[in-house]
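Anyone? Bumping this.
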Amino acid sequence: MFLNLNGNFELTDVELDANAPNLSASVSRSSGIDNRHAVSNATYKRLRIKNAKTVTPNFSGGYGITFWHGGCDNVTIDDIEFENIGQSDLGLFEMENWTVRNIKSKNCGYMVINVESSNKSRGVKNGVVDTVYASNVGRSVISLIRNSASVGDVESVTVQNVYVDKCGLTNSDVGGIRVRGTKNCTIDNVKINECNSIGIRVSGDWFGFKGTVNSYADLASLTGLNKGDIYRVSSEGLLYTYLDNQFQQQGQGQSQELLKCKNLVLSNISINKIQTTVNGEGVRVQGEAFCSHDDITLSDIYIGNSQSTGVLATYSNRITVNNLKIDKVNTS
Amino acid sequence: MQFTLCNDIHVQGGYISNIGNYGAGFTDCKDVLISGLKITNPGVSAFYFNNATDAVKIIGCTTRDNKRPKLMTNSVIVESNLPARNPKYIIADNDFEDAVGNKITIQNGVIQDRMKISNNVGI
């Protein structure tokens, strides 16, 4: 099944069986609804979409519903059931003024809801994700990330009322909820019962960073360079990027600034049973040098029965932690 | 809870209990205010500060160890590896457990005159 919609419409009461288990791992052919044109003032309501997993189990095959480039605005997605989707159940890659609510997901191979301002995208803004029930998720339940190549932001997105039974089944690192490079986003009222990865991972990735040298002159002795490699010169406190066969200076955090989180609120979070013994924090707010997060609020966070650290934060400024509750963790 | 290379942190209320290692650790941080936090049964110390974590206030916190034998070595350990930065600490109005080791251990003499320790139970 590959339904390609565009324009202004209302799609209701549809059951789609992508019937993909016998297909090769082609994403587009095996997706449920794949919007690759402009969609506006559209409603998707009471849909059941299943079996977009292809021959390879877990992360393979198609999406449930995707919104690619072209301007997907004023869209409401309500009362949708996903089952056995290989990629993300919902892929929101370029949208403004949207609402996603009442989502039920079983056996998602990748991410239940992936909000990602991707390559060429003008961003994903002004959205609400409200009420998600998910079980047996391969990777993340919610992902809010700015792609490094994006020209648009993930901005002003609220995620609330998310209930999860088992996530991170096939990836121990990405996180049950994953956040990168967002602005003014809130995640409120999330309950995860059993997570095989980091519970919530907020990252400030430093793409292309290869290492630190003492002086500018040391850059000349580096070998095996590729376009986009970034080195820090410690004597200057500056970053240099290898472009056009030479190093060009960046301002402090110039490009990496885009991948830090600003004004992020995580509230009413409960994560029980972190199963991994390595990198298995309940909440990890991880910035990097030149890419530190600003204004992070963690309110009413509960982490219980974790093999690893409850809350870990690096390279972040202005962190407020209210009413933290950590019980029974093996490290700090 | 572990914070590294973070600035302007305010931890208020809540609890940390039954931990394999220390309860709340801060490495190379600046401007840390911890108030009203209760740490029970840490595996090592309740609070642990190192690498010249600076401008710290611990106010109105409680530490307890109910295990037999008690595992908490200290309520507060301050371990500065960069004494030249001369960090400053205020530890006041806390209720500290009578730990196996000391209630407060300062592992670098330079910072002692920058410590203001007042009105803590048992100190």
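Late reply, but here is one note on the structure posted above: The domain at 10-205+260-329 of chain A is CATH 2.160.20.10 (Pectate Lyase C-like).
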